[in-house]
């Protein structure tokens, strides 16, 4: 076998002109230091956190009063406070431009298309701001939205943030109980909904669900027109009004932005798991802004006027991440609906026509495009596209190769990972370093990311827990309805004292990159050896016969045995020969320990609304335990396929 070569290496021009390069030089001059390379700069960013995060604030031009202190109690993960004297407004920083250039471009499948200028966005936010205030909404009040990923949603969020209200959103495909499990916990003062939405070419009606939810929430309902009959829906509610009626009394005027503490709550996000009612994770305005500016400006090299796209719904933290692109002055490209309606070219058509610079999506989408035989390199002209980002689950080595062979050869592919817990990334792309097949390039600046073994010792070349050993600005403010912080501490700080344990099973690579092998709580433990499920998926999902897989550990004879469930491609049946082929592929590509004791075909695999397969829920069903939060699932009926299987009784 030849020496492995990187899939992409930054050009001389990129190395010289990337915003990250300029930032490194700027920090060096400011602090009288010389950084010979990125690694030296990264080491400085975690050693001198006050200087680093102050530099991010200044270099990125944050609007606000910084105050005199950048960090207090920095050695105590739970007590640490960044910029404790600062005041700012999140919305003011996102409304970074004015004029008639595009701020937001929108497509709803192939049914709806329109765009808003910066002036239009500012005008809509002004009207909404006035209307919210007239409704008595103020600082700390919650506004909850069950909305598509459309410009009106962004405007409502910005208007909420401008007056210090707390924004929380989910997508309109959530079921009635799923919406109530989330918004019922936070008691919103206003509930914002659409009148219907498109998915897979079909109109999806939400009227009955909206009526049922609104009766429980006891909040006024604002109905945004999109795919249905907004006036009729609003009229059928006890306290409903259309967006047009809500904002009609107000003319756009100079925007007002409440100047609030750095730690003022901005968002409430919800954990997507199936282990109980979703956790309500509260994120701060300052921490979110600073972290997103760092990621967009420095790690993604985003500049004003560039087109930023991420395929996401409003129920996934990547929506919150995406909209922060406005703070850099980028143009947001929003899409709502199925990425395969009318066919698998729809997002690449959009990318070509609007000249995306950044195309963000999920590893599952890249795999689906690959398996669908779509070759954008041959069918689409994408000269502006310079960064492809992938998240949601680990991108397989074959997924990396597919991007370079069949989408675009000269592109920076950034596999990124973090989550709802930090509304951002722990590990992500780096424009100054090569991309190696199957590897995330490295940790984010200012984040003391490491991999620890069970004894709390850093490890190289072996798998362990992904941790962050020092406090950072985008840690949650806490959990909602958790006054003594008990749930918050239990979620991240019980495993290791004073260290954030993220729950990912990870490994450093020889290139200083990271591979994530799956969630820690879903790792398999046959014979006492921990195995990441992603290692198995990377093998079996490359087989044409297998559309998708899910793997669990089944308690068996005082040990654990690996059980692999496969959803097969159309027309394929699970023969003895195919089982042998699956096992030999896993044995050769992973190891003998990864080989499943059982391979079982299923018609469907359960997943969350954001597309993540739910290994823990399947494991519970197999062991006859109840699954507590089925409302988190897009297809909860699929769980029944795993109950009482005869194949698992011997």
Protein model, in words:
It is a single chain. This protein is of the alpha/beta class. The chain is 31% helix and 23% strand. It contains 21 helices and 32 strands. A seven-stranded mixed beta sheet has the order 6-5-18-17-19-20-21, with helices on both faces. It has a five-stranded parallel beta sheet with strand order 8-7-9-12-13, sandwiched between helices. Strands 25-26-28-29 form a four-stranded antiparallel beta sheet. A hairpin with a 5-residue loop joins strand 28 (500-508) and strand 29. Helix 3 crosses helix 4, helix 8 (176-186) packs parallel to helix 9 (207-217) and helix 15 (363-371) packs across helix 17. The protein starts with 11 loop residues before the first helix and ends in a 28-residue tail after the last helix.
